[in-house]
Amino acid sequence: MKKITEKNKLLSHINKAKKIVIFSHHNPDADAVGSSLALYLTLKKLKKNVHIILPNEFPAFLNWMPHSNKIIIFEKQKETSQQLIQKSDLIFLLDCNAFKRLGTDGLAELAQNSSAPKILIDHHRFPEKYFNAYFFNDKASSTCELIYQLVHHLKLEKNLDKKIAQCLYTGLITDTGSFKYDSVTPETLEIAAHLLKFKINHTYIQQQIFDTYSYNRLKLVGYALSQKLKYLKEYNTAYIALSQKELKSFNFQKGDTEGLVNYGLSIKDVVLSALITETDKMIRISLRSKGNLDVNEIARKHFNGGGHKNAAGGQLYIPLDDAIKTFENVVKSIRKK
Ligand code: 5GP
Ligand code: MN
After folding, report:
1. What is the mean pLDDT of each run of 10 residues along the chain (337 residues)?
2. What is the number of the ligand closest to the CA of 33?
3. CB under 5 Å of ion ligand 2: residues
4. Is 176:29 a contact under the CB 8 Å cutoff?
5. Where are the chain's structural domains?
6. What's the CATH number for 215-335?
7. How many CA atoms lie within 13 A of 212 on its CB side?
8. How far apart are alpha carbons 332 and 337 in whole angstroms?
9. Residue 337, pLDDT score
10. H helix or E strand, kind and range, residue 337
11. 176 and 184 Cβ atoms separated by less than 8 Å
């Protein structure tokens, strides 16, 4: 897809705005939180009144991030969120391509129906058409990479500091698997190099994100791999499905299954890996692929979702066993081609 960098439009919206709200997707990941905080800190330096509203809690392993305690969680603070949205004169949506990704709890409607102009900053394919301005590139490794570029486009780079660098670096490493995925470009690494010049402690950030498992979480990984990993050799596919009951038996906390979907891909000839988890409201499906297999397309077509070519997700509103059957049938139909 073509990138869209409407910097003049964006700048004029930012200049006019006084009360800004930044949103990002349901089940926020490190790129969602990192990019929101980096934009928040940048706009604060321009003396704007800014708030971040996320639909639900972000994982506890991000609690160390600067100003993360200022983030408003819609699920817990509905009235405050409503008032802020009502008073806002500019809205940003980050790291997702449509307001419907804010979830089913009413936040999507509140944000979309607001009279404030709306700006999309994202790297997921097929952005919705209803935004007033875009900073979009589906080739960007992360929304954090886009925020870094935006800061430069708007000539705000003098505002970059150690805190903003920490936030941006976090999204860069999590969305690229620590600079491992296809999405990494020379520019991604140049950005990372520049961020390190702010004397951020990149080892500390890595440890906060990857080495802060609880004992239960590591046991859950062990259980998932030894007892639940299914290998469909014929179809070069591996998947893990976990029920609510199984998750609860490991005292499941938000974020505990993060990264679990990647293990399947470490089998030599596997090109498609899935993690199917039962939540109290739905069945979540995370998909990862190697090479040209486009899981964004699979997620959109079969699982009411989307994402990127090699990392996507979606959901089904059927029992877990049926979701597993659906997944296997989808695999069989697409891998036969
Ligand atoms: P994850 O498997 O880590 O939840 O998501 C992988 C990627 O797919 C992320 O970039 C995420 O934003 C995207 N994604 C996950 N679930 C959905 C969904 O339901 N809809 C869309 N459009 N994208 C999703
Ligand atoms: Mn992202």
Report:
1. 94 97 96 98 97 95 97 97 98 97 93 98 96 97 98 93 98 96 96 98 96 96 98 97 98 92 97 97 96 96 94 97 98 84
2. 2
3. 31, 95, 142-143, 175
4. no
5. 3-209, 215-335
6. 3.10.310.30
7. 16
8. 9
9. 57
10. none
11. yes
- What's the whole-model pTM score? 0.91
Sheet strand arrangement including 19-24 = 4-5, 133-136, 118-122, 90-94, 19-24, 49-54, 72-73
> What is residue 254's predicted lDDT score, i.e. its pLDDT?
84
Q: Which of 148, 173, 126, 100 is nearest to 4 (CA)?
A: 126
Give the residue carrying structure tokens 């990002």.
Answer: 24
Same fold? 3-209, 215-335: no
Instruction: Report, in angstroms and rounded to the nearest whole number, the Rg of the chain calculated over CA atoms.
Output: 20
* Number of neighbours of residue 126 by Cβ within 10 angstroms: 12
Cα separation, 36 vs 21, in Å, equals 10
The yes or no reply on domain 3-209 and CATH 3.90.1640.10 is: yes
* Ligand 1, pocket-test mutation among 124, 277, 301, 303, most atoms within 8 A of CB: 124
Structural element, H or E, at residue 274: strand 272-278
Which ligand is closest in space to the CA of residue 35? 2
- DSSP secondary structure of 180-197: TSTT--HHHHHHHHHHHT
Q: What is the token pair recorded at 293?
A: 């297999």
Q: Are 172 and 145 in contact (CB under 8 A)?
A: yes
Looking at this protein, which amino acid is placed at residue 100?
K
Location of structure tokens 């090109």:
271
